[in-house]
Amino acid sequence: MFGEDDIVKGHKQRADIIFNIIVFCFGLIVIRLWYLQIYKGDLFYKYSVQNRLRKEIVNAPRGLIFSRNNELLVHNALRFDAAVVPQYLTKKDETFKKLSSILEMEQDEIKKILKNNSNQASYRPVVIKKNISGREVAIIETESSSMPGVRVETFISREYRDKEIGAHLLGYISEISQAQLPKYKKRDGIDYNLGDFIGQSGVEEMFDQSLRGEDGYQFMEVDARGRMKRVIQSNNLFQGIENKPARPGNNIRLTIDRDMQIQAFNSLEDKVGSVVAIDVESGEILTMVSRPSFEPGRFSRGISSDYWASLVNDPNRPLIDRTIQEHYMPGSTFKPFVAIAALEEGLIKPDQKIMCPPTFKLGRRVFHDWKKNGHGMTDVYKSLRESVDVYFYKIGTQLDIDTLGEYVSSFGLGKKTGILLPRETSGLVPTKEWKKKRFGEEWQLGETLSCVIGQSYNLSTPLQLAISYAAIANGGKVYKPYIIKEVFSNNGSIIKKGRPEISMNAKVSDETLKHIRRGLYEVANVKGGTAWWYRGRGIHMAGKSGTSQVRSMSSKELFSKCKDMPYKDRHHGIFVAFAPYEKPRVAVAAVVEHGCSGSGAAAPVVRDVLTTYMKKYEPELFEKLSQMDKNAYLEMLRAEREKKEKKEEEVEDDE
Known about the structure:
The chain is of the alpha+beta class. It has 23 helices and 23 strands.
């Protein structure tokens, strides 16, 4: 038929096109299958496996912290949190109702927590309540089948054995904040996430990298509701899936003595203040206590808003470490360094007597001694024993403030000690240049007279005072203080060891130190000394009391009873000492804010800490000195009784 060939030809062309299209599509399918099953087969196999698996972070146990005598100070404890995984959360109303009843929380509160965390991945668990009880854990595990998405998270919390005692030194850990994330990621090179815990103060902060270890992870097989079926180990079924065990952090042994810590804390009682004790021949910190304090364990368990508010709103600032972050005018504890400068410069001689009336006049200004009637003839020993202000006023008229500053600074005052603890303040030793730069004014002689009795611009931390008196005790060696005795791994291998390090040598001769030590010994061991009442008792301490004024006083206020003043106007009490005098082992500094006097408020604290040290580390010497003190005391009573009887006989003869 006409045109059939053309029709057949047309159909054939269309058939060829359709065939080619079919072949092309089939080819695409084959290529796609090859891509998915062969080229990307391993990857998509892994994806398919991961649909059945959940990757769980295994927190590394944080390193333990011990005292110098291997007593456990900080350890870890298992904590349980109630959490919800939004990805598997179904039957919301029923689940929220049950969970609310179990945890004793309002449903709206649970919903609010989930809403606040809605920006994170849905597979990540959201903690609803921290540190739940064993009863709550048991009920959640029992009811898990009817509450899809609800689970119990385990967490290792930080526990501090002695709670508030030494909290500032040990520090605390808490969750990293949003503001801290970029800063610490850059600093440490670690990909921190919200919810991670880091050291925020004290030893926990400074040695965080060593203590924290390295988190691991493990894979768990889960059902369609997200409930765990089993932990997956590497095998032929789940190829390429490898669990990573957590690496525990390193442990730290401190130089701190726990018994001395407890004694210092208890001796401060309800006072506001601090105590530092240091080994005079090594720089090891034996005691470091600040009060009021806080409970560091509360931070790792999730601090409540009420407790946090009580800390930040407390006028006594319990979060401040007063041993290194607070500085005070040293008061009369500064006088030994003035005497050192005067002796070294040849301005006085040890046995040279100077008349010391109740006042000293410079121009039209009158400087008062603390004693209304004055002290009469005074040498360097009496000036320290009875803390004679006028003696030092007279020295101050001859002693250049910059020269004094050189001597004082050489003992470690007015500069950071370099201790490995955060936020240490430097204190201040004033100079002419400093005043010119700070106020734009020239130095005045009257300011020197205020400085030589430890007032005016002088500022020192308790740690600096302890170090400077340790230098007096050991012959002028200023040690860099350290708190880490050893850092060691869990298998016991030593990673780092603390060693004594002399940061400088004080500008002083052995002869001058001999006279200063004698004067300090008389403070606590010779009648009339400002700490005479705390003499003996087996420690033979040598030290100096100090009164640090918190504001300038008129002559009338100066002689009024401190305890009658408003609390905020009362002087701070300071006492620094070392013991035993014959061969010093330890130096202790104590500050009691608004304690009125060093001898009344701070000296008993120092005495108690020194006694604890001597009983523990020098028991034989302690017993020997105790017996000597007892015999000396009985001899003194006998001499006083004979003197009294002789006087009575003389009166009878006159009659």
